Amino acid sequence: MQAAVLSIGTELTRGELFDTNAGTLADRLTALGFEVVRMQTVDDDLGRIVATLRELAASPVRVVVSTGGLGPTSDDLTAAAVAEAFDAPLERHEATLARIAQIFASFGRPMPPNNEKQADVPRGATILPNPVGTAPGFSLERDGTLFFFMPGVPREMDAIFEDSVKRALGPLVRPSGHQIRLRTFGLTESELATRAEALFADVPDVTLGYRASFPEIELKILARGDDPRECEERARALAQKAREALGDAVFGDETTSFPAAVGEILRRRGLTLATAESCTGGLLSAMLTEMPGSSEYFLGGSVVYANRAKTAVLGVSPETLRAHGAVSHETAQAMAEGAREIVDADLAVSITGIAGPGGGSDEKPVGTVYFGLAARGRKTVSFHRRFRGDRERIRTLAAYVALRLVKRAAEGEDLEAP
């Protein structure tokens, strides 16, 4: 069954906001078994929204999932556009109005009058409750096409889709296979594709897909067939084959972030970690502490940007800094050792480099980064990498390479290269 994704908002057509909702919805519709054939964006113009809705209703598409335009302001026109497009006058939904008023009351505030419009829905529409915001979604059918309208706020869209839309769509399609996603780091998209396609070249009824979300690449493995249980078993077997072939480039499935995967290894092995960061400015520590329960394994981090901070906080000797510079094997090792000793951690990783755009030299150009890894009872090691890109890209890659060093050290590898 064909489906379309419609995004409504002038902030999207002007490029002021990046439309993450559209990709998320297309991905979820595909996983449910729909064929997403259109992704469309229209600005906050009543006439253009009306024309788009009518055109979609007349198309071969049988499901349209839309976001945006359900807020309380004058440029939120989705409900009015649906009413005009499908000759379904707006009606006040009193239960929704009472709920919106209750939300404001819970914050000790009266409901502004303009929020009342969020309780106005086209006649015949079904309310899609919003568990995390004021604007409900709604659905209705016209000319054989089922429309779902949700707020543009990502967390609200996500909650409504999972609670209401997904349940409504489930009976409409029959899954034609089972898909498993593996998340990877350390391979380019072309490298991953070359290796994966060679691995499954002779395997029938399998489709591979890839999605780059810097700095990770997702490998999608779809086992096709009519028997859901058999497809799931084959998909799991194929995913295990990919894990074995790709090694530690695979760090988890679609629900696992790289920091979470590394943290789980530390937790499972009862190891503690400290960090020392210069050019990343605390980015690595932020990634680690995004995970609930990270205090079980992450003891703390030091951001030591200036040389005197490296000396005062971590005990890096001024002689080391003078002789070798802040961006060097020797300084990276001293930073890691100092970070480990401060909190008596099992492991410590350090990052020191030149993120740019200035500060580079012929000997140490922008993108030069050194990593140190200190482990209890083991020799401290250091590594050097050269990254290309802008400041944000270099810092993110540096944090991820440091995570990979920690992962390998926690798994007991003899470290030779990050």
Task: List the topology elements.
Blueprint: E1 2-8, H1 10-13, H2 20-32, E2 35-42, H3 46-57, E3 63-67, H4 78-85, E4 90-92, H5 94-106, E5 120-122, E6 126-128, E7 137-142, E8 145-150, H6 154-169, E9 177-184, H7 189-199, E10 206-213, E11 216-224, H8 228-246, E12 250-253, H9 258-269, E13 273-277, H10 283-289, E14 298-303, H11 307-314, H12 318-324, H13 329-343, E15 347-353, E16 368-375, E17 381-386, H14 391-410
Parallel strand pairs: 1-2, 1-3, 3-8, 13-14, 13-15
Antiparallel strand pairs: 4-5, 6-7, 7-8, 9-11, 9-12, 10-11, 15-16, 16-17
At the third CATH level, what is the topology name of the largest domain?
Molybdenum Cofactor Biosythetic Enzyme, Chain A
Q: Return residue spans where pLDDT drops below 50 for at least 5 consecutive residues.
A: none
Cα-atom Rg, whole angstroms?
26 Å
The CATH architecture designation of the largest domain is 3-Layer(aba) Sandwich
Structural class: alpha/beta
CATH superfamily (homologous) name of the largest domain: MoaB/Mog-like domain
Q: Tell me the strand percentage band.
A: 15-25%
Give me the number of helical elements: 14
How many domains, as an integer?
A: 3
Oligomer: single chain
The largest beta-sheet arranges its strands as 2-1-3-8-7-6
Overall geometry comes to: globular
Major beta-sheet overview? 6 strands, mixed
Query: How many E strands?
Result: 17
Helix fraction, binned, reads: 25-40%
From the N-terminal CA to the C-terminal CA, the straight-line distance is 46 Å
